[in-house]
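Encoded backbone
================
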Amino acid sequence: SIMKFSIIIPAHDSAKYIRKALDMVKAQTFKDYELIVVCDDCTDKTAEIARKYTDKVYEVDFHNEGKSRNFGLDHATGDWIMWIDDDDWWLHEHVLDDINKAFRHCDVLRFGFYWQLRGQCGPGDYYACWMKCYRREFIGDDVRFSDIDKWSDVDFYNAVMWKHPRIRDLDECLYYYNYLREGSQS
Protein backbone atom coordinates (compact mmCIF):
# COMPACT_ATOMS: atom_id res chain seq x y z
CA SER A 1 0.00 0.00 0.00
CA ILE A 2 2.20 2.77 -1.29
CA MET A 3 0.82 6.19 -0.55
CA LYS A 4 1.31 9.21 -2.67
CA PHE A 5 2.21 12.58 -1.22
CA SER A 6 1.38 16.01 -2.58
CA ILE A 7 3.97 18.55 -1.48
CA ILE A 8 2.85 22.15 -1.89
CA ILE A 9 5.18 25.15 -1.78
CA PRO A 10 3.52 28.58 -1.87
CA ALA A 11 6.17 31.00 -3.13
CA HIS A 12 6.60 34.74 -3.47
CA ASP A 13 9.77 36.23 -4.98
CA SER A 14 11.86 33.48 -3.45
CA ALA A 15 14.50 33.01 -6.18
CA LYS A 16 17.27 33.65 -3.62
CA TYR A 17 16.31 30.84 -1.24
CA ILE A 18 13.70 28.41 -2.64
CA ARG A 19 16.38 26.07 -4.03
CA LYS A 20 17.08 24.65 -0.58
CA ALA A 21 13.45 23.51 -0.16
CA LEU A 22 13.35 22.12 -3.72
CA ASP A 23 16.69 20.32 -3.35
CA MET A 24 15.55 18.60 -0.15
CA VAL A 25 12.35 17.40 -1.80
CA LYS A 26 14.30 16.13 -4.81
CA ALA A 27 16.74 14.32 -2.47
CA GLN A 28 13.97 12.26 -0.83
CA THR A 29 14.52 8.50 -0.94
CA PHE A 30 10.74 7.96 -1.11
CA LYS A 31 9.81 9.03 -4.63
CA ASP A 32 6.03 8.56 -4.76
CA TYR A 33 5.11 12.23 -4.58
CA GLU A 34 4.10 15.22 -6.67
CA LEU A 35 5.61 18.64 -6.08
CA ILE A 36 3.38 21.67 -6.61
CA VAL A 37 4.83 25.20 -6.55
CA VAL A 38 2.38 28.09 -6.47
CA CYS A 39 4.18 31.30 -7.46
CA ASP A 40 2.06 34.14 -6.19
CA ASP A 41 2.83 37.52 -7.74
CA CYS A 42 6.45 36.57 -8.44
CA THR A 43 8.49 39.24 -10.19
CA ASP A 44 11.80 37.34 -10.03
CA LYS A 45 13.00 33.98 -11.36
CA THR A 46 11.16 31.82 -8.78
CA ALA A 47 8.95 30.07 -11.37
CA GLU A 48 11.89 29.48 -13.70
CA ILE A 49 13.90 27.85 -10.89
CA ALA A 50 10.93 25.75 -9.75
CA ARG A 51 10.34 24.42 -13.29
CA LYS A 52 13.73 22.69 -13.12
CA TYR A 53 12.26 20.54 -10.31
CA THR A 54 8.63 20.01 -11.29
CA ASP A 55 6.22 20.59 -14.15
CA LYS A 56 3.51 21.59 -11.67
CA VAL A 57 4.43 25.25 -11.34
CA TYR A 58 1.48 27.63 -11.26
CA GLU A 59 1.79 31.38 -11.62
CA VAL A 60 -1.05 33.20 -9.86
CA ASP A 61 -1.74 36.74 -8.81
CA PHE A 62 -3.48 36.44 -5.44
CA HIS A 63 -1.06 38.50 -3.31
CA ASN A 64 -2.24 36.16 -0.56
CA GLU A 65 -0.64 33.16 1.15
CA GLY A 66 -3.92 31.53 2.21
CA LYS A 67 -5.26 31.63 -1.36
CA SER A 68 -1.96 30.21 -2.64
CA ARG A 69 -2.15 27.32 -0.15
CA ASN A 70 -5.77 26.62 -1.20
CA PHE A 71 -4.86 26.72 -4.89
CA GLY A 72 -2.14 24.12 -4.27
CA LEU A 73 -4.57 21.97 -2.29
CA ASP A 74 -7.19 22.18 -5.04
CA HIS A 75 -4.62 20.98 -7.60
CA ALA A 76 -3.22 18.19 -5.41
CA THR A 77 -3.88 14.57 -6.38
CA GLY A 78 -2.02 12.81 -3.55
CA ASP A 79 -3.51 10.87 -0.64
CA TRP A 80 -1.42 12.84 1.83
CA ILE A 81 -0.86 16.60 1.77
CA MET A 82 2.14 18.54 3.05
CA TRP A 83 3.22 22.15 2.78
CA ILE A 84 6.71 23.67 2.85
CA ASP A 85 7.24 27.42 3.05
CA ASP A 86 9.48 28.77 0.30
CA ASP A 87 12.24 29.82 2.72
CA ASP A 88 12.22 26.66 4.89
CA TRP A 89 13.41 23.13 4.20
CA TRP A 90 13.28 19.52 5.34
CA LEU A 91 16.20 18.40 7.48
CA HIS A 92 17.12 15.18 5.66
CA GLU A 93 16.30 12.90 2.74
CA HIS A 94 14.21 10.37 4.71
CA VAL A 95 11.34 12.71 5.66
CA LEU A 96 8.78 11.08 3.35
CA ASP A 97 10.04 7.59 4.24
CA ASP A 98 9.65 8.29 7.95
CA ILE A 99 6.21 9.81 7.55
CA ASN A 100 5.07 7.01 5.25
CA LYS A 101 6.08 4.44 7.88
CA ALA A 102 4.43 6.34 10.73
CA PHE A 103 1.23 7.38 8.97
CA ARG A 104 -1.07 4.57 10.01
CA HIS A 105 -4.66 4.95 11.21
CA CYS A 106 -4.53 8.71 11.50
CA ASP A 107 -5.79 11.80 9.71
CA VAL A 108 -3.08 14.22 10.81
CA LEU A 109 0.53 13.41 11.56
CA ARG A 110 2.45 16.09 13.45
CA PHE A 111 6.24 16.09 13.63
CA GLY A 112 9.02 18.01 15.31
CA PHE A 113 10.87 20.92 13.75
CA TYR A 114 13.93 23.02 14.31
CA TRP A 115 13.12 26.68 14.93
CA GLN A 116 15.95 29.04 14.13
CA LEU A 117 15.23 31.19 17.21
CA ARG A 118 14.31 28.51 19.75
CA GLY A 119 16.06 25.32 18.74
CA GLN A 120 14.29 22.00 18.52
CA CYS A 121 10.51 21.90 19.02
CA GLY A 122 8.50 18.73 19.43
CA PRO A 123 5.21 18.08 17.69
CA GLY A 124 2.28 19.70 19.43
CA ASP A 125 -0.42 22.31 19.17
CA TYR A 126 1.36 24.66 16.81
CA TYR A 127 -0.93 26.09 14.16
CA ALA A 128 1.59 25.98 11.31
CA CYS A 129 0.53 23.67 8.49
CA TRP A 130 4.13 22.87 7.52
CA MET A 131 4.84 20.69 10.57
CA LYS A 132 2.02 18.31 9.71
CA CYS A 133 0.96 15.82 7.09
CA TYR A 134 -2.77 15.60 6.34
CA ARG A 135 -4.91 12.87 4.86
CA ARG A 136 -6.48 14.49 1.78
CA GLU A 137 -9.73 12.64 2.24
CA PHE A 138 -10.05 14.03 5.76
CA ILE A 139 -9.50 17.64 4.68
CA GLY A 140 -12.26 17.14 2.12
CA ASP A 141 -13.71 20.02 0.15
CA ASP A 142 -14.83 22.07 3.13
CA VAL A 143 -11.60 22.85 5.03
CA ARG A 144 -9.57 25.68 3.50
CA PHE A 145 -7.20 28.44 4.55
CA SER A 146 -8.71 31.85 5.19
CA ASP A 147 -7.43 34.74 3.12
CA ILE A 148 -6.53 36.78 6.18
CA ASP A 149 -2.77 36.33 5.83
CA LYS A 150 -1.85 36.52 9.48
CA TRP A 151 -4.47 33.94 10.49
CA SER A 152 -4.74 31.58 7.52
CA ASP A 153 -2.83 28.76 9.31
CA VAL A 154 -4.83 29.24 12.50
CA ASP A 155 -8.18 29.10 10.73
CA PHE A 156 -7.16 26.01 8.76
CA TYR A 157 -5.90 24.18 11.85
CA ASN A 158 -9.01 25.06 13.86
CA ALA A 159 -11.25 23.86 11.01
CA VAL A 160 -9.32 20.58 10.87
CA MET A 161 -9.50 20.12 14.65
CA TRP A 162 -13.24 20.85 14.59
CA LYS A 163 -13.63 17.64 12.53
CA HIS A 164 -12.00 15.60 15.34
CA PRO A 165 -9.08 14.08 13.44
CA ARG A 166 -7.16 11.06 14.62
CA ILE A 167 -3.79 12.63 15.39
CA ARG A 168 -0.45 10.91 15.62
CA ASP A 169 2.73 12.59 16.81
CA LEU A 170 6.15 11.75 15.46
CA ASP A 171 8.83 12.96 17.86
CA GLU A 172 11.38 13.20 15.10
CA CYS A 173 12.58 16.62 13.99
CA LEU A 174 11.98 16.85 10.22
CA TYR A 175 11.66 20.53 9.30
CA TYR A 176 13.79 23.67 9.50
CA TYR A 177 11.71 26.75 10.23
CA ASN A 178 13.75 29.69 8.93
CA TYR A 179 11.86 32.30 10.91
CA LEU A 180 12.20 36.01 10.18
CA ARG A 181 14.16 36.10 6.99
CA GLU A 182 14.08 39.50 5.36
CA GLY A 183 10.75 40.01 3.63
CA SER A 184 9.22 36.84 5.07
CA GLN A 185 5.43 36.79 5.22
CA SER A 186 5.41 34.84 8.47
